[in-house]
Amino acid sequence: MANTAELKGGSFTLSALHLVDGDIEKAADFLKEKVDQAPNFFASAPVVIDISQTDDQIDFAQLKTAVQKAGMIPVGISGCKNARYQSQAKEAGFAIMNAARQAKAAEPVMVPTKIIRTPVRSGQQIYAKNSDLIIMNHVSAGAEVIADGCIHIYGTMRGRAIAGANGQQEARIFCHNLQSELISIAGNYWLSDKIQDEFWGKGVVISLAENNLNIEHLAL
Fold first, then answer.
1. What CATH code is assigned to 15-101?
2. φ, ψ for residue 70 (rounded to 5)?
3. What CATH topology corresponds to 114-217?
4. Phi/psi of residue 216, nearest 5 degrees
5. Structural domain boundaries of the chain?
6. Local confidence band at 13 (pLDDT 50, 70, 90 cut-offs)
């Protein structure tokens, strides 16, 4: 009999909300603010809640409802070593994300660089799977360019640039005119309000250092 479905391993980039205490309302307000700032990126996006930094009792049912009302989709709990808390999280409908039990993913085989010569219009999404991405034109607001490797943008960047989408922390974003709604490397992101004025509209290179984004002027 022919198979009607297949179950395979996959790699996906998920946002992670790190709770520092049991104040669910405060955390939900933070998420809603991010959704309002960049709805095309965060609205209905899956999120994992990391509770490793808090010792407070958590109402997981309330947490799930609060995240949903904020506009995101709660999919799992990470950093939970307490068996009782794990049971409560499961009862609330969360998956338990245990990195220690996950098989290490094989290193992806990189393929030739993807080159886009035309402008990337609002609403478009360009994805360079297992490769670098070169945009030889402008990227409009509301557009999204994604690469598992590095991203090079030779025009004005007004949309969202997501490099290292498969977790590569060595990925870089090179941009000749940075006016981006969002920049991200290996799941670490900044919205436009975090980009310093000295780099706005300038040529820059964006990298990741100790899980923090770093921007430098691009030497031309």
1. 3.30.70.260
2. -70, -15
3. Pectate Lyase C-like (2.160.20)
4. -130, 155
5. 15-101, 114-217
6. low
For the chain, count helices (H), then strands (E). 4, 15
- Inter-residue contact 150 to 174 (CB < 8 Å): yes
Q: What is the rounded distance in angstroms from the CA atom of residue 202 to the CA atom of residue 175?
A: 8
Task: Let me know if the fold of 15-101 is the same as that of 114-217.
Answer: no
pLDDT tens digit sequence for 148-166: 999 999 999 999 999 998 8
pTM of this structure = 0.69
Q: Residue 79 corresponds to which amino acid?
A: G
Q: Give dist(CA 141, CA 122) in Å, integer.
A: 6
Tokens for 163, please give them.
Answer: 């490099």
Separation between Cα atoms, residue 150 and residue 219, nearest integer Å: 17
Q: Long-range pairs for 212-219 at CB < 8 Å and ≥24 separation?
A: 212/188, 213/183, 213/185, 213/188, 213/189, 215/178, 218/174, 218/175, 218/176
pLDDT tens readout for residues 199-216: 999 999 999 988 889 999
Diameter over CA atoms, the chain: 63
| pLDDT band per the 50, 70, 90 thresholds, residue 100 | very low
Q: What is the mean pLDDT of residues 111-139?
A: 95
On the question of pLDDT at 1 being above 90, the answer is: no
Q: What is the DSSP code string of 110-164?
A: P-PPEEE-S-B-TT-EEEETTS-EEE-S-B-TT-EEEESS-EEEEEEE-SEEEES
